[in-house]
Predict the 3D structure of the following.
Amino acid sequence: MEMAKNCSGKYKITIYIICCLLLTCWNIYVYEAHFEEHLKLRDYRASEQLLYNPSYLEEGYAADALIREIVRGKEVVVPRELVPYKEYPSYGHMHETGNPFSNEYFWENNYTKYFSEYASKITVDTSLPDLYEIEEKPLSEDVRADFILLGPGNDMMRYAHMGDHTDEETSNQFYYTYVYTVNPYHPKDEQLQIRICTDGLEADKTLVALWDTGENLYLMGKSYYDGNVAGEYE
Amino acid sequence: MTEIQALDKLVAGLSQGYMLHQVVVITGFFVLGLLFVYASGTASLFMTAASGDAVSEKETKPYDRGSLAAMLYAYPSGLALFSVIGYLMLCLGIPYTTGTMIIAMVLVGIICILVIVRKYDLVDIISQRKYYLIVILSMLCVLLLSVMLTINPFHVVVDNDSFFYFSAYPNAIVSEGQYTKYFDVFLTDAAPIGSIVQTLPYLLGFSETFGIQYFLDLNFLLIFGYALYTEFMGAIGRKRALVCAVGTVLFLVTSSAYLATAKWVMAGVYFMSYYFITAYLSYKAGGMGHGCLRYGGFSEIAGAKLKPDTRKPYVMLALMAVMTSMLRQEGVILMLVLVLTLSVLRGYSGKELASCFILPMLVASAIYYIRVFVVLDVHPLYAFLTAGKAIIIEAALLFCGAYLLFLRDKLGDRVHRTLPVLLPACALILNLGLMIMRSDRYFHNLYMFYLNVRIGAGWGYFGYIAAVILLLLIIKAIIKKEWYLSFFDSLMLTYVFTVFLVAFGRGDELRKGVGDSGNRVMLTVVPLVVFAVALRFLKDTCGDTDCIQE
């Protein structure tokens, strides 16, 4: 074009291109040498088509992402009905001096709330050992050895309120600000640990979720439960 | 079998078929978006005759030169159609399920086809072999690229928000099929449309959106490069323009500051990409960007360069406005920055800007705020978006709408010419006001912005490079007495000053680290900075005379 011929800045254009290329090389060096260090976040190559990556196992990271994937499209059987917060002693008294709160509301209901949101169906089977029975008589060492510890589930429980269709979620925020975010990766007395047994977990259409009063979850296939756990609690 | 082997086996089993689903979704968005690009008249923005002059819409054909450029807007349009329609359904209480969304997408596709049939001479199109070749090649290209990107060849960056705000919450939206009161803090803190994009896996049968995100990244870079090429072309010739555009894109794509956002599984990458895409598209629709740079008196020239009978792609502009504004909770304010900068272009009437941008954003934001604060009556203990902030946002929209409808077209030429400087100046004055009123928090936030750039929290060394170039440009401006700002200079500066304001509006103090919300929003300005600086530099290659030839 005429105007292009009129423009006399071809040397400036050359300088511009050289600068771009030099800065690009510098950028590549900075990226390779410092990107992860500067970012301080998880930067990795996903090996599978899941948000959860098996490399997370070592640090116990993002257990929730795998649990949601496992229960997707499946029925989960739990030992207790969801009990609304208004049935608990501290309901209506939460903002009084001392901020009383019935912690058992979370221990008893959070996993049910959680699974009701992400599984296709929740079924209550009261013949399953509930959290108090598990507390009294923990799962045997042989059974526990079949479970993989995925890591802590603090944030899973922190956001369990989305599955709550009965109660005010302010009770969740009170609890999570105090317990779930305090020492999130160093829970006391082994609390909030997420475990799965992979035997039959993918093949079974029905899963069983058990937990104790420390909100330690044991998620397994129905076939595994029937064959290895049910007998211990008859 | 070791634990990791058992887990690997489980993960492989769970993800069967996921890749194919994601590839189909990407391709589907491209096809739907392409139909929309043609139906909305967006394609005609890119059509040029062999001479390089603009042509009227009636003279264009879908397979003309420029049709490839129109395809660049296909995928972003398709994704935007899905996201905005899903967003409207959720806000209006229409069941949000796989079935209803597929029906909605199919209906949109049918409407687009009907509009295209009316708009173009189908007999002529069908008889052209070249058309079939372009369509088949582009589809194969999209398919191949989507497969390559979905096998996850590149790294991704995740953090806690990626798993909860942009995975668990979208999962719950699909599970419920509606917004519920029990979503609580997610309704006020998570990006509304950002979350809807992340519902794709749960609606359509996969787990992550890495391929979708990377395809958008690639698409954005192509649009960015094409925009640079178009802007450089008239001034320095096609070949040099191509080399300069490629060089600039290489610089951008290797910058840590760009990659930090582009790779991170969050709403930021979508906001950054759509903001630039919307900005350039609306700038182009304003009659600008037909192959030459415009500075100084560009506002007068814009009107003269409009095609004789071409209407602007109003529906596309409205779609992009809603998409971009609701991709972040503060997106409306940052979109207002774009709209006010667009008001400088004489190619737009005040009524056009109000109806294409303000009205859709007003409606889209209002129905969300009403759903959250009135219908669901949500009161989280800790919230970014409060009812008070929602009212302020709506008031800002109404105020800007009133300015555009009643004042803007009455501004004298002299005032109009100073608007590119007035806009960032106003944003700066607002910052000064905040500084005086809340100096402790304001200075703390400013220091955090500075600290995060200095330590490279997501910025790498981009901050230093940008500071040096900015200093050189200021010195040059002082020496040559070139006191003007281009469209993109003005947009970039006003954007930066506005980010300081919206960061203040968070309520909490900013903190050190890449995860700080204010820092993440500021990172989204990087493409604008690179674009504005590249244009300013290339303008200088043409000397002081305006490159425009009538």
User: Anything to note?
Assistant: Residues 2-39 of chain A form one domain.
